[in-house]
Amino acid sequence: DKGVEKTRRSFSDRINELFAGFRQVDDEFFDDLEEAFISSDVGFDMTLALSDAVREEVLLRGASSGEQVKNVIIEKMVEIYDKGGEPSVAINENPDGPTVMLFVGVNGVGKTTTIGKMAYQLKQQGHKVLLAAGDTFRAGAIEQLEEWARRVDVPIITGKAHGDPASVAFDAAKEAREGNYDYVLVDTAGRLQNKVNLMNELDKMKRILTREIPGAPHETLLVLDATTGQNALVQAKEFDKTVDIDGIVLTKLDGTAKGGVIFAIRYEMDIPVKFIGLGEQLDDLQVFDAEKFIYQLIK
Ligand code: GDP
C-alpha cells in the first residue's frame, strides 16, 4: 500500500517487536507501548489516554494472548480518535453556486501541491475548477501555481507579484460566478511570522469573497507537513487563533515516521483531518479515513 509506509514501519516495527516478545500484559509491556506511540508523535496526552483505555479493557475482557491485546489496541485507537462521534471529512459545499475553498498554511508545507492535486481530483470528478493565485507575497508562488494549472489543465486567475491578494480573490470570484464554475481554489500567503498582517489579509480576502459569492469561503483548509511532527500541531494551534479552519490537510505522510501526529491533532483540537498527502504526484491526495489508517498502521 502506497504512502503510509514509513509511518507504518515505525508503528508496526515497534508494535510487532512488542508482540514478538510478548509474554504477558504487565507494566513493562505498557511502558514499551507508550514509548512506541510517543516516538511516532502520537503525543503525550493521547498516548496516556490510549494506554489507560487499553489497560482497562484488557482487564475487563481478560485478554491474554498477543492477538487479543493487539485487537484491543486497534479498537481503543479508533474509539479515542472518534471522540464519541466520527468527525466528518466532507467538504462544505455551496449549493447555490461555486464552492470557494481557501488554502492556508506556512510556506513549504505543500500548499501549492495540494491545490494542484485537489484541482486534479475535482476535475476528474467532472467539475469545472478555477485556481486563484492569492499568494502574491512569496517569490515564485504565482508561477508555481501557474505550473500546476497547466499540468491539470484548469484556468487560473493571477495578479501582480506583491499586489493585493484581495483583488485576486475578487477577480476569481467574479470569473467563477460568471463562468459557472463549480470550485474555486484560492492560494494564500503563509506568513505566520506576521500574524496581524496575515489576519488582516485573510479577513480582507474573505470579506471580498463573501460579497461576491454568499458564504464564501465555504471551506478553509489548513495544510500541515507531517514530517515536522509535533511542530505541525503547534502550527495548527497558531492558525486556529487567526482564522476559522474547517479541516486539515496533512501532507508528506509518505515520507515520515511521524504520522502519529494525526492523532495528536485530533486529540488536542476539534478540527478534522480531511485529506492526507501521500506523494508529489497528482493522484497522491486521499480523503482521510481514520479507521483504515489505524488498521494499516497496526495490522
Ligand atoms: P508550499 O510552499 O506550501 O506551496 O509547498 P509546495 O507545494 O511547494 O511543496 C513543498 C515541497 O513538498 C515540494 O517539493 C513538494 O513536491 C513537496 N510535497 C508536497 N506534498 C507532498 C506529499 O504529500 N508528499 C511528498 N513526499 N512531498 C510533498
TrEMBL record:
<dbReference type="GO" id="GO:0003924">
    <property type="term" value="F:GTPase activity"/>
</dbReference>
<dbReference type="GO" id="GO:0005525">
    <property type="term" value="F:GTP binding"/>
</dbReference>
<dbReference type="InterPro" id="IPR000897">
    <property type="entry name" value="SRP54_GTPase_dom"/>
</dbReference>
<feature type="domain" description="SRP54-type proteins GTP-binding">
    <location>
        <begin position="272"/>
        <end position="285"/>
    </location>
</feature>
<dbReference type="InterPro" id="IPR036225">
    <property type="entry name" value="SRP/SRP_N"/>
</dbReference>
<comment type="similarity">
    <text>Belongs to the GTP-binding SRP family. FtsY subfamily.</text>
</comment>
<dbReference type="Pfam" id="PF02881">
    <property type="entry name" value="SRP54_N"/>
</dbReference>
<dbReference type="InterPro" id="IPR027417">
    <property type="entry name" value="P-loop_NTPase"/>
</dbReference>
<keyword id="KW-0472">Membrane</keyword>
<dbReference type="GO" id="GO:0005737">
    <property type="term" value="C:cytoplasm"/>
</dbReference>
<dbReference type="GO" id="GO:0006614">
    <property type="term" value="P:SRP-dependent cotranslational protein targeting to membrane"/>
</dbReference>
<dbReference type="InterPro" id="IPR003593">
    <property type="entry name" value="AAA+_ATPase"/>
</dbReference>
<dbReference type="InterPro" id="IPR013822">
    <property type="entry name" value="Signal_recog_particl_SRP54_hlx"/>
</dbReference>
<keyword id="KW-0342">GTP-binding</keyword>
<protein>
    <recommendedName>
        <fullName>Signal recognition particle receptor FtsY</fullName>
        <ecNumber>3.6.5.4</ecNumber>
    </recommendedName>
</protein>
<dbReference type="InterPro" id="IPR042101">
    <property type="entry name" value="SRP54_N_sf"/>
</dbReference>
<dbReference type="GO" id="GO:0005047">
    <property type="term" value="F:signal recognition particle binding"/>
</dbReference>
<feature type="binding site">
    <location>
        <begin position="187"/>
        <end position="191"/>
    </location>
    <ligand>
        <name>GTP</name>
    </ligand>
</feature>
<comment type="function">
    <text>Involved in targeting and insertion of nascent membrane proteins into the cytoplasmic membrane. Acts as a receptor for the complex formed by the signal recognition particle (SRP) and the ribosome-nascent chain (RNC).</text>
</comment>
<feature type="binding site">
    <location>
        <begin position="105"/>
        <end position="112"/>
    </location>
    <ligand>
        <name>GTP</name>
    </ligand>
</feature>
<keyword id="KW-0378">Hydrolase</keyword>
<dbReference type="GO" id="GO:0005886">
    <property type="term" value="C:plasma membrane"/>
</dbReference>
<dbReference type="InterPro" id="IPR004390">
    <property type="entry name" value="SR_rcpt_FtsY"/>
</dbReference>
<keyword id="KW-0675">Receptor</keyword>
<dbReference type="Pfam" id="PF00448">
    <property type="entry name" value="SRP54"/>
</dbReference>
<keyword id="KW-0963">Cytoplasm</keyword>
<keyword id="KW-1003">Cell membrane</keyword>
<feature type="binding site">
    <location>
        <begin position="251"/>
        <end position="254"/>
    </location>
    <ligand>
        <name>GTP</name>
    </ligand>
</feature>
<comment type="subunit">
    <text>Part of the signal recognition particle protein translocation system, which is composed of SRP and FtsY.</text>
</comment>
<keyword id="KW-0547">Nucleotide-binding</keyword>
